[in-house]
Amino acid sequence: MNQDPEDQIILIDKPTGISSFGVVAKVRGFLKAKYGHKVKVGHTGTLDPFATGLLIILSGKMTKKSNDFLKLDKVYEATMKLGYTSTTGDPEGEIREYIPTQFDYSSSPLRSHPSSLGSLASCSPSVANIPQNNLIKPDLHDIESTLTKFTGKITQTPPKYSAIKINGQRAYKLARQNKDFEIPSRQVEIYKIEILDYHYPELTIRCHVSSGTYIRTLAEDIGNALNTGAYLTKLRRLQIGQYNIKDSQSLTNYCNKD
């Protein structure tokens, strides 16, 4: 029995500036025009509007298999900016300079690099309310040492600006309404993190992670561990399970093909 041509696995290289639901809407419109009737379409895991990369779209009867795709591991390339934080963990939030309320020199990953602190190295171990950009600039050794702490099974608290449902409502909608709510922590696994480029304040990494891992949260946690703060400036998904970005097509090309 031949598969219905409407039942597809569609690999799209999502551009920046559009939501995953926006991509689904465009693909749905294209398929409706192609087949002359409405076709069921869905995605298998969101990418934030600022993010790019692999988005798996399912159409027709393939949409029934969406849960199989949600469980797959993922590979991302992420660039984060140290020394700053964002209310959403990405460029769309309010950006602020990271100012720790207290700096504990004895527990800092830079304790073996007193030169990083300049004249502050001889100060009291606790230095309050000093802008982080004037305090430390982690070197490559500091970054490598810190990233090893995030390899393996770790506990994450997903961001409030996320698509997770809280009592039936999306968390990001509650956050935009300034509602007070908590998101339960979860255990995820980071299989591998490698540094692709580092020139302070920008750090670019590639990470292979389990399903359910939030890279925005990972970046914030890394920034906190470095005592610099951090937020994502770029995020690109390269792989979902066996599906690779190399086999995808742009949204424009897909929706304009014959």
Protein described:
The protein is α+β, with helices and mostly antiparallel strands. It is 21% helix and 32% strand. The longest helix has 16 residues, at 20-35. The chain is elongated and about 60 Å long. Mean pLDDT is 82; it is low at 103-133.
What would you say about this model in short?
21% of the residues lie in helices and 32% in strands. With 258 residues, the protein is an alpha+beta fold.
Portion of residues in beta strands equals 25-35%
Structural class assignment: alpha+beta
Q: What sort of overall outline do the alpha carbons produce when their principal axes are compared? A: elongated
Counted up, domains total 2
Which residues form runs of ≥5 with pLDDT under 50? 103-133
CATH superfamily of the largest domain: Pseudouridine synthase
Report the order of strands and helices: EHEEHEEEEEHEEEHEEHEEEH
Can you give the helix content as a percent range? 10-25%
- CATH topology (fold) name of the largest domain: Pseudouridine synthase
Integer average pLDDT? 82
Distance between the termini: 25 Å
Could you tell me the radius of gyration in angstroms? 21 Å
> Could you name the CATH class of the largest domain?
Alpha Beta
What's the helix and strand layout?
Blueprint lengths: L7 E7 L5 H16 L5 E3 L8 E8 L6 H5 L3 E9 L1 E3 L8 E3 L5 E2 L21 E2 L12 H9 L3 E5 L8 E2 L2 E2 H6 L9 E14 L2 E8 L5 H12 L3 E11 L2 E2 L4 E2 H5 L3
Parallel strand pairs: 1-16, 3-14
Antiparallel strand pairs: 1-3, 2-3, 4-13, 4-14, 5-6, 7-8, 9-12, 10-11, 12-13, 14-15
